[in-house]
Amino acid sequence: MAQIDHKVRTLPEAARLSELEARLIRVRDEITAAETIAGDLHLDQARADADVEQVRERSRRDQELLDAGTINDSKQLQSLQHELGSLARRQLELEDVELEVMERVEGANAAVRQLTDERDQLEIDQAEATAVLANLMAGITAEREATAAERDLIKSEIPDDLLALYEKIRINHDGVGAARLYRGQCEGCRMQLPPSEIQALRNAVPNAVLRCEECRRILIRTPESGL
Ligand SMILES: [Zn+2]
Question: How far, in Å, from the CA of 170 to the mean position of ligand 1?
């Protein structure tokens, strides 16, 4: 059961899901930032469009005035023509600005699209990873329940005082309360027991609870214990 719990804590599928969720948070933040930039640029574009339109309108009015032929004063005519010239130059300048802003708007829109695509893919991956993990966890939960039932069955056959001792040791020894004694070695701490200790264990009565003198775990005797 400790192994199952450890498996649950270290599932690569869970780590993958966490990573996807972290990336999603990041991308969503980036989308918000990119949308803010794009929004500001849209306003800049609207302003640039309005600036160009204002100059065009002024030129149109001047041109109409000129075409109407109602102005006869030569100085006034000259001044009007001069203004038309500067308006034309100003219009070209403003159109350059407008073009530049448009390009930046396109760039910002493209950035938003790219991030949105990335987010959509991450959401698909996240849904998949969630399903994979849920499926896996269902299997592990079933395995854990079966193991718990098996453990409880064995538990019911063990005297209470021995069980209490086992639990106490288990909690303080990485979840392993009892270890097999194999060819004179404690498989809990890997310590090779000295011959004097082996002799003492050999002399113990069959139902005595043996303990490793190094790690204090309960030692389980088998035909391969070397006793
Ligand atoms: Zn030991």
Answer: 12
| Residue 122 CA to ligand 1 centre (angstroms) | 49
pLDDT in tens, 31-73: 999 999 999 999 999 999 999 999 999 999 999 999 998 888 9
**Same domain membership, residue 91 and residue 167:** no
Same domain, 12 and 34: yes
* Cα 148 to ligand 1 centre (Å): 26
Domain count, the chain: 2
pTM for the whole structure: 0.70
* Ligand 1 centroid, distance to 227 Cα (angstroms): 16
Give tens-digit pLDDT for 146-171.
999 999 999 999 999 999 999 999 99
Residues 68 and 99 in one domain: yes
Is residue 127 domain-shared with residue 66, that is, in the same domain? yes
Q: What is each CA distance from 5 to 17, 46, 175, 179, in whole angstroms?
A: 18, 60, 11, 20
Ligand 1 centroid distance, CA of 199 (Å): 16
CA of 193 to the centre of ligand 1 (A): 9
Residue the block writes with tokens 């980036």: 30
Average pLDDT for 79-87: 95
Could you tell me if 108 and 170 lie in one domain? Answer: no
Residue 187 predicted with pLDDT over 90: yes
Q: Which domain holds residue 185?
A: 160-220
Per-residue burial over 42-58, b = 16 or more CB atoms within 10 Å of its CB, e = otherwise: eebbeebeebbeebeee
The Å distance, Cα 220 to ligand 1 centre, comes to 11
